[in-house]
Amino acid sequence: MADRDPVPLPAEVRAKLAELELELSEGDITQKGYEKKRSKLIGAFFPQAPGMDPSVGQERRAPVTPSSSSRYHRRRSSGSRDERYRSDVHTEAVQAALAKHKERKMAVPMPSKRRSLVVQTSMDAYTPPENHSAPPDVTGYTNNTAGGADGIQVERAPGAAVQRQTPKYGNAELMETGDGVPVSSRVSAKIQQLVNTLKRPKRPPLREFFVDDFEELLEVQQPDPNQPKAEGAQMVAMRGEQLGVVTNWPPSLEAALQRWGTISPKAPCLTTMDTNGKPLYVLTYGKLWSRSVKVAYNLLHKLGSKQEPLVRPGDRVALVFPNNDPAAFMTAFYGCLLAEVVPVPIEVPLTRKDAGSQQIGFLLGSCGVTVALTSDACHKGLPKSPTGEIPQFKGWPKVLWFVAESKHLSKPPRDWFPHIKDANQDTAYIEYKTCQDGSVLGVTVMRIAVLTHCQALTQSCSYTEAETIVNVLDFKKDVGLWHAVLTSVMNMMHVISIPYALMKVNPLSWIQKVCQFKAKVACVKSRDMHWALVAHRDQRDVNLSSLRMLVVADGSNPWSISSCDAFLNVFQTKGLRPEVICPCASSPEALTVAIRRPLEEGGAPPGRGVLSMQGLSHGVIRVDSEEKLSVLTLQDVGSVMPGALMCAVKPEGVPQLCRTDEIGELCVCTAATGTSYYGLAGMTKNTFEVFPMTSAGAPVSEFPFTRTGLLGFIGPAGLIFVAGKMDGLMVVAGRRHNADDIVATALAVEPMKFVYRGRIAVFSITVLHDERIVVVAEQRPDSTEEDSFQWMSRVLQAIDGIHQVGVYCLALVPSNTLPKTPLGGIHLSETKQLFLEGALHPCNVLMCPHTCVTNLPKPRQKQPEIGPASVMVGNLVSGKRIAQASGRDLGQIEDNDQARKFLFLSEVLQWRAQTTPDHVLYTLLNSRGTIASSLTCVQMHKRAEKIAAMLAERGHLQDGDHVALVYPPGIDLIVAFYGCLYAGCVPITVRPPHLQNIATTLPTVKMIVEVSRSVCVMTTQLISKLLRSKEASAAVDVRTWPPVLDTDDLPKKKPPLLYKPSDPDTLAYLDFSVSTTGMLAGVKMSHTATSAFCRSIKLQGELYPSREVAICLDPYCGLGFVLWCLCSVYSGHQSILIPPSELEANPALWLSAVSQYKVRDTFCSYSVMELCTKGLGLQTDALKSRGLDLSRVRTCVVVAEERPRTALTQSFSKLFKDLGLHPRAVSTSFGCRVNLAICLQPHRLGKPADQGTSGPDPTTVFVDMRALRHDRVRLVERGSPHSLPLMESGKILPGVRIIIANPETKGPMGESHLGEIWVHSGHNASGYFTVYGDEALQSDHFNSRLSFGDTQTVWARTGYLGFLRRTELTDASGERHDALYVVGALEEAMELRGMRYHPIDIETSVIRTHKSITECAVFTWTNLLVVVVELDGSEHEALDLVPLVTNVVLEEHYLIVGVVVVVDIGVIPINSRGEKQRMHLRDGFLADQLDPIYVAYNM
């Protein structure tokens, strides 16, 4: 190589040094011993050796002594790597590239793992950087992070009303800064580190480019004007020497076999070895001939019947022989040739599910194989079923196994002879070829091609009769088959076959056989040369002077050159002559492409090319001398084969000749190539029938060329150079990289302490319209997390430095887990498949999307807003309606509503207790579905009176005092509520603390009690004890509770007088709820609003005393509370109450009740629906047999404050359709803080449209998700890319008006435009209930006016984005129906790269990527996207999810995920409405309280 030591060393010293290096690399000598011996050896030559160059030491934790970090340290590391890839210059280049990176000080945050995933944990040593508070914004344009937290504008949470709820995970209050970011925790320190790393400029800035209104154009890599271009003249096709016709060459191979079998039957043809290296068996030409004839006869006459033979001439049969039995293979192969049957040699299937066995089966099936020939031993070793049958292998056709051994065959009759013809155009054999994608093709080779190829090999290798050849290669295909089975028989040579098993035990065996038999030729791979180097230590008597030719079968692998050099270096002293090493290039399609001829003494030395990798990546040849960092040294593979014509064509597009300084795909034109891919005419045409064109458009030759699949060029003196395979080519951002080169760089990084050499897979996957490089390596079991991670980050840096290309993902898997090919290599396509399916189970993953993905759309720049007036004029001009809609007008509805006479609900209850005392209003069910308790009008009135008396007597409460009701869902809650109204108090319903989870649920209760200024708490005896218990005192200060009244034993007496409010606009109750962003907000509901609300629902739902309604909702806030506590009293219908918590014990409870009570209307929440869908998915048949019938249900409304979950409602409808549920019955409602129910869609099934309030079906539209990010609505067809289904949120309630306004300018929007939903209605809440009374927020949310148009009406802002669309449907009054589509909450939306993203869209994409992801939540932190996924599976699947999550978010949302967190099921907090509490999750993550299984920081 180019980097030999400066002073020429004597050969014996060189040999000893090489030995030393190998000893060290194999671990037979310590580093210290190695240095000692080495300095002794070369002391005479390098007096200054010990302290040469300490600057390029390896990145180690411990200080490195100068001598160990010196040049030998780097040099010796190469010995222990896979020799195919060994190159000293390359190692040096890699170290230099790393040194460069070291100056830049890359700090990559290490991923954190749960201990159970780590073999040796080393995380605890990690200390977070000091003092950093709120993190800087990575993507901002101004850099205001100078003064720590002071420089950063922390926006306070909007208004004090929406107070922050205590984070769910323990007490994180202690660590928060203004916006809830923990000050110092391990996680935030790591993210900080990630942010800092990402802030560094990594590539030249992207070109500015134009973003069309809708189509976000992906950045297209523009060619760099300075990139090297080919400048040479057009190449000329190169012709090989004439193929000489020697008079005694046989007319066909069978004729040759017949000749040798009869003339010299005693001549040895093949000697096989056992695993001890002893000759096992010698096959003579006589035996080979007689046995092949026997096989041929039996194939044609002994299979099937006389009338119906199983095998006819021209049929294909499989040859299944193990690698240690070449003799049986040879007889079967020649037997097939003699019988004119086409052999298809394949590997022995070891198990039923081998990697790639299915594809082999597909090949056999397409070839129509029905018979498989095998040996006795192999037949015995195949897996068998209990009955002794060989099972059908995965993907295989049904085959008859036929043992082709002499003792099992019948003798042919004396008068039977095979028909021996001259070589013709018939197919001789089919060789299988595995493609890059794992598919297996069969290359058909004609008899004339076989003969011509053997002649060409005989001529180029100067083979003579009776020469001895040692073969280490696989004899079933490729170079091994051509030299050791075909050409050897043509020339009556003697083959010594070395099985793979013997090489494993004794890597020197082939060299020993060369000496023992004085062999003239050996066929090996560079791997075998490397193994011999490793093992040659104690061999004194090796003499290789008999060798005239050492054929290196993978000489076309650019990295084989180092093996050849090292081998020559060591064995030159043992008689090996340099000119003996003959690399060759071959491919299954073109057979031997080129081979170096054995030179006569003193001939011209072989060619070397030192090429720039930068040039190669642009397809250009540049000899590189000065830039030592990234070069590829190539050796020639000799010249064109005799009788062949060769040229190089451009790899893509039309086969046009390359220029002389351009790399292209080599093509050959000769009779000696394959002719087709069996059964694939189209692919055959593209490969075997290519007509290369000159630039003028003229064909180079009238005969077709065959593509070799090799990339290379024809150098000076007609020498062929191969730079890589087409299969290993990865085109990233327009530049070509070869997988082998990247493997070599990865292996040059470090001595092989961390990964196994030769167990590295490099492939590319397509993500976001470009190829991305993935490196997968097997990790040694003894390497620590820290070391592996360090190695990974250095590999990334090295590949970046040398190839100028980023690695998208680097994964380490446990040793021995990558799928193997039959000969022990890595099965690349299967590895890639596992990676993409998330089934690789890596133990370490490092993703670098930030560095690699450079073709994202440009961030959106916000345009200055167009004024509201112009928008309105624009809409009028374009004929668009202003987006507004309303429910029926309450004033015009005539109904005999008795309850309308009363202003207050308390009066309605008293009236019902007098007029219909025994009418049942409420029935509560328990988990068994039986009635736990029920309540008539009069019972309810009496119990409410007692509570009012108790409040007056024990509580000494005044009018208007606030009372917190902390009850489980049930009847006590309802009674207590009316008791408060009777006493003139203002009730606040509060969810009781969870018994199993007091620490996290009790603080919320305490907070609501304090914020609502409750002067007393009413509850049950059980809960009142709990509030003062020991567990409670650990979570909150129990001494500060207001008086707690338990209502289990009520006083006997009635209150003297029931309170009657004077003014209907006074407060009726407070509704407190925690929003999804973790804000606690209470709204005030007046008596007027409450009555209006109940009337609106009564009209929309057609609720009368004769109706029964089943309610499975949490009764603490919003519409759930109204339906549970208020509606029955107002409308008089019976409510069947089903607490959602009871469904955990009995998921069928709700639906059974609906069926049992023949209910027509039912209300539930998404969490209830999900519980039923997941819990009852497999039980529908059982439920049907128990008589569950849902056919009476007309409306099943999901109560929600979010975008309708289309997928969930659809799967629910689909699942329970079998039980009679009408798909149109399921719909949703929509409410928010300012108005607890805006839409509610009970459709009336089975009624003609002209009766009652029959509403149209809910409609679903599909919108373009990309347009939505730009705040636009664009309707697309179902199933189009990037489409998002949106279901309308129900029918607008009577008395409600809606308008869509621009949230910034407050101007009205046109129809089908995205804006904020504003609402005007009699049941709007009258304001936030705040401790501080923040007036600005109050007036903004509850009393907004449009800035243009109708500026008089007072609207409440919902805080949700949505749009209105007029549909083709009409409602009962004949009006066209306006559908409201809710897109998402403004405060939840994430602003990333200038676009607005709704978390649910990203989460939906992520949940779809892998079956083990059950739930997902996303949030941002310092403009990094954090994705948290819940894993339902073994912890070892955790790391599989990281690449999948990153890929899908990039593909579908054009976003780079910053952090992927994998957690256990149930970690993502969900509130009672089934909404994710993303901000709690964020707080818990930053405070390091999630106990994640794995956290990956993407670079």
Outline:
This protein has about 1500 residues and is α/β, with parallel strands linked by helices.
Description of the structure:
It is a single chain. With 1499 residues, the protein is α/β, with parallel strands linked by helices. The protein has a nine-stranded mixed β-sheet, with helices on both faces. An eight-stranded mixed β-sheet has the order 34-33-42-41-43-44-45-46, with helices on both faces. Helix 33 (1166-1175) crosses helix 35. It is elongated, with a radius of gyration of 41 Å. The model is unreliable at 1-6, 47-83, 120-184, 201-215 and 1245-1255 (pLDDT under 50).
How is the secondary structure organized here?
Blueprint: H1 11-25, H2 31-42, H3 71-77, H4 88-104, E1 112-113, E2 163-164, H5 186-199, E3 238-239, H6 253-263, E4 268-273, E5 279-284, H7 285-301, E6 316-320, H8 326-338, E7 342-346, H9 357-367, E8 371-374, H10 376-381, E9 400-403, E10 427-434, E11 440-446, H11 447-461, E12 468-471, H12 478-490, E13 494-497, H13 500-505, H14 509-517, E14 521-524, H15 526-535, E15 549-552, H16 560-571, E16 581-587, E17 591-595, E18 608-612, H17 613-617, E19 631-635, E20 639-640, E21 645-649, E22 664-669, E23 676-677, H18 681-688, E24 706-714, E25 720-725, E26 729-732, E27 735-738, H19 739-748, E28 755-767, E29 770-779, H20 785-803, E30 807-814, H21 828-837, E31 844-847, H22 849-852, H23 868-877, E32 884-886, H24 905-915, E33 920-925, E34 931-936, H25 937-953, E35 962-966, H26 971-983, E36 986-990, H27 998-1011, E37 1016-1019, H28 1021-1027, H29 1030-1035, E38 1044-1046, E39 1067-1074, E40 1079-1086, H30 1087-1101, E41 1108-1112, H31 1118-1131, E42 1134-1137, H32 1149-1156, E43 1161-1164, H33 1166-1175, H34 1180-1185, E44 1195-1198, H35 1206-1215, E45 1226-1230, ...
Parallel strand pairs: 4-13, 6-7, 6-8, 8-9, 12-13, 12-14, 14-15, 15-16, 29-30, 33-42, 35-36, 35-37, 37-38, 41-42, 41-43, 43-44, 44-45, 56-57
Antiparallel strand pairs: 1-58, 2-40, 3-21, 4-5, 10-11, 11-23, 16-17, 17-20, 18-19, 21-22, 22-24, 24-25, 26-27, 28-29, 30-31, 32-49, 33-34, 39-40, 45-46, 47-48, 49-50, 50-51, 51-52, 53-54, 55-56, 57-58
Helix pairs in contact: 1-2, 1-16, 4-19, 4-20, 6-7, 7-8, 11-12, 15-16, 19-20, 24-25, 25-26, 30-31, 33-35, 38-39
